[in-house]
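User: structure tokens for this one?
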Amino acid sequence: MEVPIRNMAGEEIGQIELKDTVFAAPVNRGLMHQALVRQLANARKGTHKTKTRSEVRGGGRKPWRQKGTGRARHGSIRSPIWVGGGRAFGPTPRKYTKKMPKKMRRAALRSALSVKAGLGQIVVLEQLEIAAPKTKVFVQALADLGLDNESVLVVLPERDLAVEKSISNLSQAKALLSGNLNIQDLLSHDRLLLPRAAVDFIHAWLGESRSRMRRGEPDARL
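Assistant:
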């Protein structure tokens, strides 16, 4: 699959081939859903906690005698049926983490990238450079690329503080390192903005790792 390469002024300056093994892979929507559920679950801290009747302060003595008052019998004012009492069957700290094999996670990423490519939602830049942190410079670049009215995920090949700070103030855009590409960000943004170097990284990460393993070569990205 070939897509145009553009500069920051929005001009088409060439073509780049997106490998079919990554950007035209079979789309498995069930796998994408599983990967998304896993990521959302793993982001939960699970620190929720309510107090039971044994943990609420007070209520040590019986509020009134068992018989003879005409009222219902009670043993503690910290019973769950009392205002200010403990919580019955309330949440306690727990782990929500879910496991998913690496091959499945990468297959889900390939599926999401293939969906983006199939819908024409991938924009490839020759290079994304901003001399100093300036939000208006990046906003102008989005306008030149025709992306000013859409949410954009910018995938950077390496850390670039000027670019990251220029994007950080925008609610419709997010900067992400290519090594941190994830299913949630892919599915929650309308467009994917990739510098050429980020495309090369994704090809090597999601498309060539198996061949490297066959040759016995170490892959630092695994």
